[in-house]
Amino acid sequence: MRRILLLLPIFFLTACGGVELAFMNEVKVFEPKWTILSEKITFIKRHISIADMRYESDIKQVEKGIGDLDAGRQDEVRSLRNRYRKVIEEKDELKGKFEETLESFKTTIYAFNDWENKLMNNDLDTDEAKLQFAKYQSFYAELYGSIDSLQTDLIQNIERHNSLLKSMTQLMDKDTNFRIDIGG
Questions:
Q1: For residues 65 and 174, is the Cβ–Cβ distance under 8 A?
Q2: How far apart are the first and last CA of the chain?
Q3: 3 pLDDT exceeds 50?
Q4: CA triple 13-22-110, angle to 5 deg
Q5: Which of 61, 108, 118, 166 could bond to 123 as cystine, CB 3.0-4.6 Å?
Q6: What is the pLDDT of residues 149-160, one digit of tens each?
């Protein structure tokens, strides 16, 4: 009987803390999702940097040879060049959106980490913590959608770069390859 009385407080504390432990586990399971976003951000950042370096220099290389073409081909290459200028403008818009999204991500991840540390140290009211967690989950879903859309748009932009420059160099009978690899 005495043994049962000693175990009763432990059982009571464990039973009461079950919801808390389950909630903390739910947070720990959610936490790695930020890494997925971080990987997408790294991909976007790397490819925007490549595009920034390459787009202007690639088109300048192509433009050097336009004067050597016959009038018909010059017109075709100039038409493609004008379309390419729009690709550059789109890339610049994507870069601006990315920078805004990146700042939002950084702010959120720092706040989440701070919140999580407080949660793990039992410095938060459980009900408030659950409401805040729901907000983080919702914001994650929104941020994921934005970042995924940016990544898709950037890939399409780079594919247009590749396609237009290939078309221009073919018209110019050049073997130069201006392709940007988007494999990873």
A1: yes
A2: 65
A3: no
A4: 115
A5: 118
A6: 999 999 999 999
- For 145, other C-beta atoms within 10 Å of its C-beta total 10
pLDDT at 72 over 50: yes
For residue 82, what are its two tokens?
């004008």
pLDDT of residue 184: 58
Q: How many CB atoms lie under 10 A from the CB of residue 83?
A: 14
Using CA atoms, how far apart are residues 163 and 157, in angstroms rounded to an integer? 10
Distance CA 100, CA 48 (A): 14
Contacts with 150 (C-beta within 8 Å, 6 or more apart), sequence order: 44, 94, 97, 98, 101
For residue 99, which of 160, 36, 49 has the smallest C-alpha distance?
Answer: 49
pLDDT digits (tens, 9 = 90+) for 22-50: 999 999 999 999 999 999 999 999 999 99
